[in-house]
Amino acid sequence: DKRYNITVPKSVKVIGGAAFLGVKGKINIDISNITSIGDQAFVASDLSGTITISKNLKFDGKKNPLWVCTAVFSKTKITAVVIEEGVTRIGDHTFEYLENATEITIPKSVTEISETAFVLNANQDSMTIKGYEGSCAQEYALSHDIPFVAMSHKHIYSNPNFVWSEDYTSC
What we know:
This protein is mainly beta. 5% of the residues lie in helices and 33% in strands.
């Protein structure tokens, strides 16, 4: 097995379909610099760490509605996924077989999660989905026996004379 040490320069904006398919070794990439990722771009690669999915990121050239497409990150070594507000859909097999993932954060804007988005993760007992009460994320977690943690909003109110804050969980 040949192992690589790949650093994707910040000037790279597009990752094509299957670009890192099966690549073993260190993959250094800042996903926040990428504007488009193709299907199966990182499948079965050694991509690791936390992945943040921006609402501005296109998957396989599709932007409306914003969604994460088929099998982009399946079978990788990702430990956490943060999906930013504005993404609306998580597609088939996107995060399947994430043996090292412990936390998936899903915003309220996600209104559709494919039945197979997170399937076959051997560590489902130690993986947690974070989201909002009454959300699609909570519904998915409960229907797939994945632990769910409700997030809360913190609002800070201020005027020139005083500042106060209020925590509450959204429904």
